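Hi R.,

Here's the chain you asked about this morning:
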Amino acid sequence: MKRFSLKPIFTLSFILYSFFASGQTELKNQILDFNTMLPVESASIYIKNTTTGTISNADGKFVLVVPNEFKTDTLVVSSIGYKSFKLPISEFDNSEIIYLEEEVAALDEVLLVADTRPKTANDIVLKALEKLSDNFPEQPYLEKGFLRYKERNTKEFKWLIESAITLYDSAFTSNPNQNLKINVDQMRKSYDLRDVDSLLVYTAYLKQEKGVKDLQAKNLKRDTIKTESLIRAIKWNDSRTNGLESLFLGKLNVLRNNSLPKALFGERVLENHLFALDTVLVDNERKIYKIKIEGGQDYVNLDTKGIYNDGYKADGWIYIYWDNYAIKKIEYNLVAASPVQKSRSKTLYGTQTNHKLVVTYMEYQDKMYPNYLYYETPKLVNVGIKPSEGKTDEEAAAYNKDERYYYAVQEVLFTEIIVDPEQVSHALQGTWDPDIFSKKPYDKSFWNNYNTLLESEEDEQLIKDLTQRSTLYKD
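And here is the predicted structure, written out as C-alpha coordinates:
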Protein backbone atom coordinates (compact mmCIF):
# COMPACT_ATOMS: atom_id res chain seq x y z
CA MET A 1 0.00 0.00 0.00
CA LYS A 2 1.10 3.56 -0.65
CA ARG A 3 2.20 5.86 2.14
CA PHE A 4 0.74 9.33 2.21
CA SER A 5 1.21 12.52 4.21
CA LEU A 6 0.52 16.18 3.57
CA LYS A 7 3.30 18.67 4.34
CA PRO A 8 3.90 21.16 5.85
CA ILE A 9 0.63 20.55 7.65
CA PHE A 10 0.44 16.90 8.72
CA THR A 11 -2.80 15.16 7.79
CA LEU A 12 -3.60 11.61 8.78
CA SER A 13 -4.15 9.14 6.01
CA PHE A 14 -6.57 6.32 5.65
CA ILE A 15 -6.94 3.13 3.65
CA LEU A 16 -10.40 1.80 3.17
CA TYR A 17 -11.96 -0.74 0.98
CA SER A 18 -15.67 0.04 0.83
CA PHE A 19 -18.62 -1.35 -0.95
CA PHE A 20 -22.36 -0.80 -0.79
CA ALA A 21 -24.50 -3.86 -0.31
CA SER A 22 -27.50 -4.84 1.76
CA GLY A 23 -27.96 -1.27 3.01
CA GLN A 24 -24.48 -0.92 4.44
CA THR A 25 -20.88 0.04 3.75
CA GLU A 26 -18.01 -2.10 5.00
CA LEU A 27 -14.88 -0.14 5.86
CA LYS A 28 -11.52 -1.86 6.30
CA ASN A 29 -8.30 -0.21 7.36
CA GLN A 30 -5.00 -0.30 9.25
CA ILE A 31 -3.69 2.34 11.65
CA LEU A 32 0.03 2.94 12.29
CA ASP A 33 2.04 5.22 14.54
CA PHE A 34 3.56 7.91 12.28
CA ASN A 35 6.92 7.91 14.10
CA THR A 36 7.46 4.22 14.83
CA MET A 37 5.41 2.70 11.98
CA LEU A 38 4.04 0.23 14.53
CA PRO A 39 0.35 -0.74 14.68
CA VAL A 40 -1.90 1.35 16.94
CA GLU A 41 -3.94 -1.12 18.95
CA SER A 42 -7.33 -0.32 20.53
CA ALA A 43 -7.83 2.92 18.60
CA SER A 44 -11.47 4.02 18.47
CA ILE A 45 -13.06 4.11 15.03
CA TYR A 46 -16.60 5.49 14.99
CA ILE A 47 -19.13 7.59 13.11
CA LYS A 48 -19.26 11.11 14.53
CA ASN A 49 -22.25 11.86 16.82
CA THR A 50 -23.31 8.19 16.85
CA THR A 51 -22.41 5.12 18.88
CA THR A 52 -21.62 3.00 15.81
CA GLY A 53 -17.98 2.05 15.95
CA THR A 54 -15.27 -0.48 16.63
CA ILE A 55 -11.63 -0.65 17.74
CA SER A 56 -8.40 -1.69 16.04
CA ASN A 57 -6.84 -5.06 16.78
CA ALA A 58 -3.25 -5.94 17.70
CA ASP A 59 -2.22 -5.44 14.08
CA GLY A 60 -3.83 -1.99 13.95
CA LYS A 61 -6.54 -3.31 11.63
CA PHE A 62 -10.31 -3.02 11.86
CA VAL A 63 -13.55 -3.61 9.98
CA LEU A 64 -16.54 -1.31 10.48
CA VAL A 65 -20.02 -1.89 9.07
CA VAL A 66 -21.64 1.49 8.38
CA PRO A 67 -25.42 1.59 7.77
CA ASN A 68 -26.31 3.56 4.63
CA GLU A 69 -28.14 6.12 6.74
CA PHE A 70 -24.69 7.27 7.93
CA LYS A 71 -22.76 7.03 4.65
CA THR A 72 -22.66 10.85 4.25
CA ASP A 73 -21.42 11.36 7.81
CA THR A 74 -17.88 11.72 9.17
CA LEU A 75 -15.68 8.92 10.46
CA VAL A 76 -13.42 9.62 13.43
CA VAL A 77 -10.27 7.70 14.40
CA SER A 78 -8.92 8.57 17.83
CA SER A 79 -6.51 7.13 20.36
CA ILE A 80 -5.22 8.54 23.64
CA GLY A 81 -2.00 10.43 23.02
CA TYR A 82 -2.59 10.96 19.29
CA LYS A 83 -4.15 13.62 17.08
CA SER A 84 -7.59 12.53 15.89
CA PHE A 85 -8.31 11.77 12.25
CA LYS A 86 -11.63 12.82 10.69
CA LEU A 87 -12.86 12.31 7.13
CA PRO A 88 -16.24 12.08 5.36
CA ILE A 89 -17.03 8.44 4.67
CA SER A 90 -17.71 9.29 1.03
CA GLU A 91 -14.09 10.46 0.59
CA PHE A 92 -12.38 7.28 1.69
CA ASP A 93 -9.54 6.04 -0.51
CA ASN A 94 -8.60 2.38 -0.20
CA SER A 95 -5.00 3.03 -1.26
CA GLU A 96 -3.89 4.94 1.83
CA ILE A 97 -2.71 3.89 5.32
CA ILE A 98 -3.74 5.82 8.41
CA TYR A 99 -0.84 7.39 10.29
CA LEU A 100 -1.58 8.80 13.75
CA GLU A 101 0.76 11.48 15.08
CA GLU A 102 1.50 11.74 18.80
CA GLU A 103 0.10 14.69 20.71
CA VAL A 104 1.04 15.46 24.31
CA ALA A 105 -0.07 18.39 26.45
CA ALA A 106 2.78 20.16 28.25
CA LEU A 107 2.60 19.14 31.91
CA ASP A 108 4.27 22.33 33.12
CA GLU A 109 1.67 24.45 31.33
CA VAL A 110 -1.43 22.61 32.46
CA LEU A 111 -0.39 22.69 36.10
CA LEU A 112 -0.26 26.51 36.09
CA VAL A 113 -3.98 26.91 36.68
CA ALA A 114 -6.36 28.07 39.38
CA ASP A 115 -5.76 26.80 42.91
CA THR A 116 -9.17 25.12 43.01
CA ARG A 117 -8.02 22.18 40.90
CA PRO A 118 -6.78 18.97 42.60
CA LYS A 119 -3.06 19.04 43.37
CA THR A 120 -2.20 15.33 43.50
CA ALA A 121 -3.09 12.20 41.57
CA ASN A 122 -4.94 10.85 44.61
CA ASP A 123 -7.09 13.98 44.67
CA ILE A 124 -7.74 13.77 40.92
CA VAL A 125 -8.91 10.17 41.21
CA LEU A 126 -11.11 10.95 44.22
CA LYS A 127 -12.63 13.86 42.28
CA ALA A 128 -13.33 11.55 39.32
CA LEU A 129 -14.97 8.96 41.58
CA GLU A 130 -17.03 11.69 43.22
CA LYS A 131 -18.30 12.77 39.80
CA LEU A 132 -19.16 9.28 38.53
CA SER A 133 -22.84 9.92 39.23
CA ASP A 134 -22.66 13.07 37.05
CA ASN A 135 -20.69 11.50 34.21
CA PHE A 136 -22.35 8.09 34.05
CA PRO A 137 -25.95 7.49 32.84
CA GLU A 138 -28.77 8.56 35.12
CA GLN A 139 -31.53 6.85 33.12
CA PRO A 140 -32.13 3.24 31.99
CA TYR A 141 -30.39 2.22 28.77
CA LEU A 142 -29.54 -0.75 26.56
CA GLU A 143 -26.24 -1.51 24.86
CA LYS A 144 -25.79 -3.94 21.99
CA GLY A 145 -22.41 -5.61 21.85
CA PHE A 146 -20.18 -8.38 20.56
CA LEU A 147 -18.51 -10.93 22.84
CA ARG A 148 -15.46 -13.02 22.03
CA TYR A 149 -14.45 -15.53 24.69
CA LYS A 150 -11.37 -17.64 24.09
CA GLU A 151 -9.45 -20.09 26.21
CA ARG A 152 -5.98 -21.23 25.32
CA ASN A 153 -2.61 -22.38 26.52
CA THR A 154 0.62 -20.90 25.16
CA LYS A 155 0.35 -23.02 22.01
CA GLU A 156 -3.23 -23.13 20.80
CA PHE A 157 -6.89 -22.32 21.33
CA LYS A 158 -8.87 -24.84 23.32
CA TRP A 159 -12.21 -23.06 23.35
CA LEU A 160 -13.89 -20.21 21.47
CA ILE A 161 -17.27 -18.51 21.76
CA GLU A 162 -18.49 -15.51 19.76
CA SER A 163 -21.92 -14.06 20.40
CA ALA A 164 -24.06 -10.94 20.25
CA ILE A 165 -25.22 -9.65 23.62
CA THR A 166 -27.48 -6.97 25.09
CA LEU A 167 -26.71 -5.18 28.36
CA TYR A 168 -29.41 -3.40 30.36
CA ASP A 169 -28.62 -0.98 33.17
CA SER A 170 -31.31 0.98 35.03
CA ALA A 171 -28.86 3.76 36.08
CA PHE A 172 -25.38 4.15 37.50
CA THR A 173 -26.66 4.79 41.03
CA SER A 174 -28.79 1.61 41.14
CA ASN A 175 -27.70 -1.68 42.70
CA PRO A 176 -26.18 -3.78 39.88
CA ASN A 177 -27.33 -7.06 41.42
CA GLN A 178 -30.93 -5.91 41.13
CA ASN A 179 -30.87 -3.59 38.12
CA LEU A 180 -28.31 -4.89 35.64
CA LYS A 181 -29.28 -7.59 33.11
CA ILE A 182 -27.46 -9.38 30.28
CA ASN A 183 -28.85 -11.42 27.42
CA VAL A 184 -27.07 -13.56 24.84
CA ASP A 185 -28.92 -12.76 21.61
CA GLN A 186 -27.09 -14.73 18.94
CA MET A 187 -24.22 -17.21 18.67
CA ARG A 188 -21.68 -17.06 15.83
CA LYS A 189 -18.97 -19.54 16.77
CA SER A 190 -18.72 -22.17 19.45
CA TYR A 191 -15.83 -24.63 19.65
CA ASP A 192 -14.82 -26.57 22.74
CA LEU A 193 -11.77 -28.83 22.55
CA ARG A 194 -10.48 -28.43 26.07
CA ASP A 195 -8.73 -31.46 27.47
CA VAL A 196 -11.23 -33.11 29.75
CA ASP A 197 -8.54 -33.58 32.36
CA SER A 198 -9.33 -30.85 34.85
CA LEU A 199 -9.07 -32.85 38.05
CA LEU A 200 -8.49 -29.68 40.10
CA VAL A 201 -11.85 -28.30 38.99
CA TYR A 202 -13.49 -31.69 39.49
CA THR A 203 -12.17 -31.79 43.06
CA ALA A 204 -13.60 -28.31 43.80
CA TYR A 205 -16.90 -29.35 42.23
CA LEU A 206 -17.22 -32.42 44.43
CA LYS A 207 -16.33 -30.47 47.57
CA GLN A 208 -18.61 -27.49 47.02
CA GLU A 209 -21.54 -28.99 45.12
CA LYS A 210 -21.58 -32.58 46.36
CA GLY A 211 -20.32 -32.09 49.90
CA VAL A 212 -17.35 -34.47 49.53
CA LYS A 213 -14.78 -33.63 52.22
CA ASP A 214 -11.03 -34.27 52.55
CA LEU A 215 -10.53 -34.81 48.82
CA GLN A 216 -7.41 -33.91 46.83
CA ALA A 217 -6.85 -33.98 43.09
CA LYS A 218 -3.71 -36.09 43.43
CA ASN A 219 -5.86 -38.89 44.86
CA LEU A 220 -8.07 -39.01 41.75
CA LYS A 221 -7.37 -40.94 38.57
CA ARG A 222 -8.73 -39.78 35.23
CA ASP A 223 -9.59 -43.28 33.96
CA THR A 224 -11.92 -43.88 36.92
CA ILE A 225 -14.09 -40.80 36.25
CA LYS A 226 -16.84 -40.63 33.66
CA THR A 227 -16.27 -38.02 30.97
CA GLU A 228 -19.75 -36.53 31.43
CA SER A 229 -18.98 -35.95 35.12
CA LEU A 230 -15.84 -33.99 34.26
CA ILE A 231 -17.72 -31.98 31.64
CA ARG A 232 -20.35 -31.11 34.23
CA ALA A 233 -17.64 -29.89 36.59
CA ILE A 234 -15.97 -27.78 33.88
CA LYS A 235 -19.26 -26.08 32.98
CA TRP A 236 -19.93 -25.43 36.66
CA ASN A 237 -16.56 -23.76 36.97
CA ASP A 238 -17.12 -21.77 33.76
CA SER A 239 -20.31 -20.25 35.09
CA ARG A 240 -19.05 -19.34 38.55
CA THR A 241 -15.76 -17.76 37.45
CA ASN A 242 -16.08 -16.67 33.82
CA GLY A 243 -19.71 -15.94 33.07
CA LEU A 244 -20.92 -12.50 32.01
CA GLU A 245 -22.74 -12.02 35.29
CA SER A 246 -19.51 -12.56 37.23
CA LEU A 247 -17.78 -10.00 35.06
CA PHE A 248 -20.41 -7.25 35.14
CA LEU A 249 -21.82 -7.77 38.64
CA GLY A 250 -18.56 -8.43 40.45
CA LYS A 251 -15.82 -6.32 42.00
CA LEU A 252 -13.80 -6.06 38.80
CA ASN A 253 -16.46 -3.83 37.28
CA VAL A 254 -14.60 -1.30 39.39
CA LEU A 255 -16.37 1.93 38.37
CA ARG A 256 -19.96 0.80 37.84
CA ASN A 257 -19.98 -1.13 41.11
CA ASN A 258 -17.98 1.27 43.28
CA SER A 259 -20.91 1.80 45.66
CA LEU A 260 -21.11 -1.85 46.70
CA PRO A 261 -19.71 -2.98 50.08
CA LYS A 262 -15.92 -3.53 49.94
CA ALA A 263 -15.79 -2.13 46.40
CA LEU A 264 -12.24 -1.83 45.00
CA PHE A 265 -12.79 1.81 44.04
CA GLY A 266 -15.14 2.55 46.91
CA GLU A 267 -14.62 4.40 50.18
CA ARG A 268 -11.38 2.49 50.93
CA VAL A 269 -9.81 3.03 47.52
CA LEU A 270 -6.73 4.77 48.98
CA GLU A 271 -6.08 1.96 51.44
CA ASN A 272 -5.19 -0.57 48.74
CA HIS A 273 -4.25 1.78 45.88
CA LEU A 274 -1.73 4.55 45.32
CA PHE A 275 -1.97 6.98 42.39
CA ALA A 276 0.80 8.99 40.75
CA LEU A 277 0.41 11.58 37.98
CA ASP A 278 2.50 10.56 34.98
CA THR A 279 1.65 13.21 32.37
CA VAL A 280 -1.18 14.97 30.57
CA LEU A 281 -2.02 13.69 27.08
CA VAL A 282 -4.59 14.63 24.47
CA ASP A 283 -7.57 12.52 23.45
CA ASN A 284 -9.80 13.74 20.63
CA GLU A 285 -8.66 17.34 21.21
CA ARG A 286 -9.26 17.16 24.96
CA LYS A 287 -6.61 17.09 27.70
CA ILE A 288 -6.57 13.90 29.69
CA TYR A 289 -4.60 12.89 32.82
CA LYS A 290 -2.52 9.73 32.62
CA ILE A 291 -2.24 8.39 36.17
CA LYS A 292 -0.28 5.35 37.40
CA ILE A 293 -2.05 2.84 39.63
CA GLU A 294 0.07 1.10 42.26
CA GLY A 295 -0.52 -1.06 45.31
CA GLY A 296 -1.42 0.53 48.64
CA GLN A 297 -0.82 -0.54 52.22
CA ASP A 298 -3.46 -3.28 52.12
CA TYR A 299 -3.86 -6.22 49.76
CA VAL A 300 -6.63 -6.21 47.17
CA ASN A 301 -9.16 -8.96 47.83
CA LEU A 302 -11.89 -10.10 45.42
CA ASP A 303 -13.71 -12.28 47.98
CA THR A 304 -14.70 -14.90 45.39
CA LYS A 305 -16.82 -17.64 46.94
CA GLY A 306 -15.00 -20.97 47.07
CA ILE A 307 -11.73 -19.58 45.64
CA TYR A 308 -8.74 -18.00 47.34
CA ASN A 309 -8.82 -14.85 45.21
CA ASP A 310 -7.08 -12.55 47.66
CA GLY A 311 -3.62 -11.22 48.46
CA TYR A 312 -3.05 -9.01 45.40
CA LYS A 313 -1.48 -5.65 44.71
CA ALA A 314 -2.86 -3.37 42.00
CA ASP A 315 -0.95 -2.18 38.96
CA GLY A 316 -2.03 -0.23 35.90
CA TRP A 317 -3.21 3.13 34.55
CA ILE A 318 -6.27 5.33 34.68
CA TYR A 319 -7.07 8.10 32.19
CA ILE A 320 -9.24 11.01 33.37
CA TYR A 321 -10.45 13.96 31.30
CA TRP A 322 -9.11 17.33 32.39
CA ASP A 323 -12.33 19.27 31.86
CA ASN A 324 -15.06 17.19 33.55
CA TYR A 325 -13.11 14.44 35.39
CA ALA A 326 -14.85 11.73 33.38
CA ILE A 327 -12.89 8.46 33.31
CA LYS A 328 -12.09 7.46 29.73
CA LYS A 329 -10.04 4.32 30.30
CA ILE A 330 -8.77 2.08 33.06
CA GLU A 331 -6.08 -0.59 32.77
CA TYR A 332 -6.14 -2.65 35.94
CA ASN A 333 -3.96 -5.65 36.83
CA LEU A 334 -3.95 -7.67 40.03
CA VAL A 335 -0.57 -9.22 40.83
CA ALA A 336 0.09 -11.82 43.52
CA ALA A 337 1.60 -10.07 46.54
CA SER A 338 0.97 -12.09 49.69
CA PRO A 339 3.23 -15.11 50.30
CA VAL A 340 0.29 -17.50 50.03
CA GLN A 341 -0.95 -16.00 46.76
CA LYS A 342 2.55 -15.89 45.25
CA SER A 343 3.04 -19.59 45.95
CA ARG A 344 -0.45 -20.50 44.76
CA SER A 345 -0.17 -18.50 41.53
CA LYS A 346 3.22 -19.94 40.65
CA THR A 347 2.12 -23.52 41.26
CA LEU A 348 -1.32 -23.42 39.67
CA TYR A 349 -0.99 -20.80 36.96
CA GLY A 350 2.66 -20.25 36.14
CA THR A 351 2.15 -16.48 36.45
CA GLN A 352 1.96 -13.85 39.18
CA THR A 353 -0.59 -11.70 37.30
CA ASN A 354 -3.98 -13.24 37.98
CA HIS A 355 -6.30 -10.59 36.54
CA LYS A 356 -5.85 -8.21 33.61
CA LEU A 357 -8.67 -5.77 32.96
CA VAL A 358 -9.04 -2.99 30.39
CA VAL A 359 -12.23 -0.92 30.15
CA THR A 360 -12.79 2.07 27.88
CA TYR A 361 -15.81 4.36 27.81
CA MET A 362 -17.49 6.34 25.03
CA GLU A 363 -19.21 9.70 25.47
CA TYR A 364 -22.79 9.93 24.22
CA GLN A 365 -25.15 12.80 25.03
CA ASP A 366 -22.71 14.03 27.70
CA LYS A 367 -22.63 10.69 29.52
CA MET A 368 -19.99 7.96 29.59
CA TYR A 369 -21.02 4.45 28.51
CA PRO A 370 -18.98 1.23 28.43
CA ASN A 371 -17.31 0.89 25.04
CA TYR A 372 -14.77 -1.94 25.20
CA LEU A 373 -13.86 -4.48 27.84
CA TYR A 374 -10.91 -6.90 27.94
CA TYR A 375 -10.53 -9.37 30.78
CA GLU A 376 -7.84 -12.04 31.05
CA THR A 377 -7.33 -14.55 33.84
CA PRO A 378 -5.48 -17.88 34.23
CA LYS A 379 -7.51 -21.06 34.71
CA LEU A 380 -7.15 -24.15 36.83
CA VAL A 381 -6.31 -27.29 34.85
CA ASN A 382 -4.35 -30.43 35.61
CA VAL A 383 -2.65 -31.45 32.37
CA GLY A 384 0.45 -33.62 32.55
CA ILE A 385 2.42 -34.97 35.47
CA LYS A 386 4.42 -32.63 37.63
CA PRO A 387 8.06 -33.80 37.85
CA SER A 388 9.33 -34.90 41.24
CA GLU A 389 11.82 -37.32 42.68
CA GLY A 390 11.20 -40.87 41.61
CA LYS A 391 9.54 -39.97 38.30
CA THR A 392 10.77 -41.62 35.14
CA ASP A 393 12.10 -39.52 32.25
CA GLU A 394 8.94 -40.35 30.31
CA GLU A 395 6.71 -39.17 33.13
CA ALA A 396 8.72 -35.97 33.56
CA ALA A 397 8.51 -35.25 29.81
CA ALA A 398 4.71 -35.49 30.00
CA TYR A 399 4.68 -32.39 32.20
CA ASN A 400 4.69 -29.69 29.55
CA LYS A 401 4.28 -26.10 30.73
CA ASP A 402 3.07 -25.07 27.28
CA GLU A 403 0.20 -27.51 27.67
CA ARG A 404 -0.37 -27.18 31.40
CA TYR A 405 -1.06 -23.47 31.92
CA TYR A 406 -4.31 -22.14 30.51
CA TYR A 407 -5.81 -18.66 30.45
CA ALA A 408 -9.14 -17.26 29.40
CA VAL A 409 -9.82 -13.96 27.63
CA GLN A 410 -13.18 -12.21 27.36
CA GLU A 411 -13.58 -9.22 25.05
CA VAL A 412 -16.76 -7.18 24.72
CA LEU A 413 -17.24 -4.43 22.14
CA PHE A 414 -20.36 -2.30 22.56
CA THR A 415 -21.49 -0.79 19.27
CA GLU A 416 -24.95 0.66 19.91
CA ILE A 417 -26.56 2.59 22.77
CA ILE A 418 -30.35 2.74 23.13
CA VAL A 419 -31.84 5.31 25.51
CA ASP A 420 -35.36 5.59 24.10
CA PRO A 421 -37.68 4.72 27.05
CA GLU A 422 -40.15 2.78 24.88
CA GLN A 423 -37.45 0.60 23.33
CA VAL A 424 -35.87 -0.05 26.71
CA SER A 425 -39.21 -0.92 28.28
CA HIS A 426 -40.14 -3.22 25.41
CA ALA A 427 -36.83 -5.09 25.65
CA LEU A 428 -37.37 -5.72 29.35
CA GLN A 429 -40.59 -7.62 28.63
CA GLY A 430 -38.65 -10.48 27.01
CA THR A 431 -36.68 -13.30 28.58
CA TRP A 432 -33.11 -12.47 29.62
CA ASP A 433 -30.58 -15.31 29.51
CA PRO A 434 -26.91 -14.49 30.30
CA ASP A 435 -25.63 -18.04 29.70
CA ILE A 436 -22.79 -17.75 27.17
CA PHE A 437 -22.08 -21.47 27.40
CA SER A 438 -25.32 -22.76 25.88
CA LYS A 439 -25.29 -23.19 22.09
CA LYS A 440 -27.78 -21.30 19.94
CA PRO A 441 -28.75 -21.58 16.25
CA TYR A 442 -26.57 -19.65 13.79
CA ASP A 443 -28.33 -16.83 11.90
CA LYS A 444 -26.13 -15.78 8.98
CA SER A 445 -28.31 -12.80 7.98
CA PHE A 446 -28.02 -11.33 11.47
CA TRP A 447 -24.23 -11.35 11.39
CA ASN A 448 -24.07 -9.78 7.92
CA ASN A 449 -25.08 -6.44 9.49
CA TYR A 450 -23.44 -6.68 12.90
CA ASN A 451 -20.18 -5.05 13.98
CA THR A 452 -17.63 -7.42 15.49
CA LEU A 453 -14.05 -7.36 16.71
CA LEU A 454 -11.54 -8.15 13.98
CA GLU A 455 -9.21 -10.98 14.94
CA SER A 456 -5.48 -10.41 14.95
CA GLU A 457 -3.51 -12.37 12.35
CA GLU A 458 -2.30 -14.74 15.07
CA ASP A 459 -5.79 -15.32 16.44
CA GLU A 460 -7.21 -15.79 12.96
CA GLN A 461 -4.78 -18.63 12.32
CA LEU A 462 -5.47 -20.21 15.72
CA ILE A 463 -9.22 -20.03 15.05
CA LYS A 464 -8.71 -21.76 11.70
CA ASP A 465 -6.69 -24.48 13.42
CA LEU A 466 -9.34 -24.87 16.10
CA THR A 467 -12.09 -25.08 13.48
CA GLN A 468 -10.22 -27.80 11.60
CA ARG A 469 -9.48 -29.78 14.74
CA SER A 470 -13.09 -29.43 15.84
CA THR A 471 -14.29 -31.02 12.58
CA LEU A 472 -11.86 -33.91 12.97
CA TYR A 473 -12.86 -34.33 16.60
CA LYS A 474 -16.54 -34.59 15.73
CA ASP A 475 -15.81 -37.12 12.98
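One quick note: The mean pLDDT is 85.

Cheers,
M.
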